[in-house]
Design brief:
This protein is an all-alpha fold. Helices cover 87% and strands 0% of the residues.
């Protein structure tokens, strides 16, 4: 196993492309996770606003204004 690792690290023709490909895959994974967390947060916010409207502590107009303000700032 150690000799395989030494051959891999010593062979720059394979090492550098593999490093670049790994970095690209890592970036794609991080971006996907970021989008997922952002989407979940936006949905949670919509549900909380709906709950406030349902319990009567917020009017539907206030809730709509809040949701529209998030969209104008670039949030989901």
């Amino acid at each position: 196993m150690e000799s395989l690792i030494e051959q891999f690290v010593g062979n720059k023709d394979v090492y550098i492309p593999t490093l670049i490909a790994s970095a690209i895959v890592l970036i794609v994974i991080v971006k996907s996770l970021t989008r997922m967390v952002t989407g979940i947060s936006a949905e949670r916010t919509r549900r909380e606003i709906a709950a406030y409207i349902a319990e009567g502590s917020m009017t539907p107009e206030q809730g709509e204004r809040l949701l529209n303000s998030n969209k104008s700032r670039g949030c989901n």
